[in-house]
Design a protein that fits this description.
With about 250 residues, the protein is an alpha/beta fold. The protein has a single domain (about 5-245), classed as NAD(P)-binding Rossmann-like Domain (Rossmann fold), CATH 3.40.50.720. Helices cover about 45% and strands about 15% of the residues. The protein has 10 helices and 7 strands. It has helices at about 15-25, 40-50, 60-75, 100-125, 150, 160-170, 170-180, 195-200, 205-210, 220-235, and strands at about 5-10, 30-35, 50-55, 80-85, 140-145, 185-190, 240-245. Strands 3-2-1-4-5-6-7 form a 7-stranded parallel sheet, sandwiched between helices. Helix 1 (about 15-25) runs parallel beside helix 2. The longest helix is centred in the middle third of the chain and has 26 residues, at about 100-125. The protein is globular, with a radius of gyration of 18 Å. About 45% of the residues are buried. Keywords: Oxidoreductase. InterPro entries: NAD(P)-bd_dom_sf, Sc_DH/Rdtase_CS, SDR_fam. This is 3-oxoacyl-[acyl-carrier-protein] reductase FabG.
Length: about 250
């Protein structure tokens, strides 16, 4: 797919992986809608790339629909949709105090899994109503974000791993279903990246984490995630797969 001239929408684009992705797509010539729960953050990133700032929480289907409608009215239907919105949770299933953690589990799935599904559902519906872009019959591409935790989640990551596992698991069935409308679906599963989610980690924990990354032995950069999104958009044979972006790291149990 040729990115230049396409309309793109990135969720969670006010910071971190989403912001880097919005910038990278804009550099390739796309018109980018920056969707984030924080209008302030979305506006900041949008101002850098002549984008469109949209305030919406991905757990609110009505707000997400309104956001897509806003983009369509301004520029047309997004043909590249990237879901980066998500939350990180660290909580044992059975804490030492014996407290129930069901509400925390449900909230994590609501944001990370159902939020991703909501965006994908709305994006695919809108793309299905557009004209094809090339001889293959392509109408668009959807890129979702999982995590290496979906395969090697640590102690305290049951909710997070389950939510990201769901994102990974729906990649292939979604790609197979959307083949009839010419929409590809891919998922990126990053390791630990330099984002707001990781910024508060203690130095000793950061050092321990990077020791488990064979090469390069460091945290990933948001720009490296964004580069993969660009490559997925450009390569029509990338479809229905989950790509680990982790420097060959495997997370230890804790």
């Amino acid at each position: 797919m040729q990115i230049e001239g396409c309309v793109a929408l990135v969720t969670g684009a006010g910071s971190g992986l989403g912001a880097a992705t919005a910038r990278a797509l804009a550099q390739q010539g796309a018109r980018v809608a920056v969707l984030d729960r924080s209008l302030t953050d979305a506006t900041q990133v949008a101002s850098e790339i002549a984008g469109l700032a949209i305030a919406a929480d991905v757990t609110d289907a009505g707000a997400v629909e309104a956001g897509f409608a806003q983009v369509k009215a301004a520029w047309g239907t997004p043909r590249i949709v990237v879901s980066c919105a998500g939350i990180g949770t660290a909580q044992r299933i059975l804490p030492r105090d014996g407290a129930l953690t069901i509400d925390s589990f449900a909230r994590t799935l609501q944001v990370n899994l159902i939020g991703t599904y909501t965006v994908m559902n709305i994006a695919a519906r809108d793309m299905a109503q557009t004209d094809v872009l090339d001889g293959d019959g392509a109408r668009g591409v959807i890129v979702n974000t999982a995590s290496v935790a979906f395969e090697d989640g640590q102690i305290g990551q049951a909710a997070y791993a389950a939510s990201k596992g769901g994102v990974a698991a729906m990649t292939l069935p979604a790609a197979r279903e959307f083949a009839r409308i010419g929409v590809r679906v891919m998922t990126i599963a990053p390791g630990l990246f330099e984002t707001a989610m990781s910024a508060g980690l203690p130095d000793d924990l950061r050092a321990e984490i990077t020791r488990n990354v064979p090469f390069p032995s460091r945290m990933g950069l948001p720009e490296e995630y964004a580069r993969l999104v660009v490559q997925i958009a450009q390569n029509p044979m990338l479809n229905g797969s989950v790509i680990r972006l982790d420097g060959a790291a495997r997370m230890p149990p804790k």
